[in-house]
Amino acid sequence: ATGSPIVEMLSQPVFEIVYDHVLEWEAPAGFWARIAGDHEAIFDAVEAQDPTSAREAIREHLRKLRPACA
To answer: Model pTM?
Structure first.
């Protein structure tokens, strides 16, 4: 969404670490639908060039992911 290679470079290591943990975790019902909604909110904020909303959406997203990464 950002078109920035820096964002991709910084996020890739995080995804690689989180991915293994998430695969082994049994998510509660509806969890992945909520996560998909988070992704849409983040994308929409970035697309709208609204850094405040993007920051808040990412923080909320990471808060929801915390149990999967424990």
So the answer is: 0.67
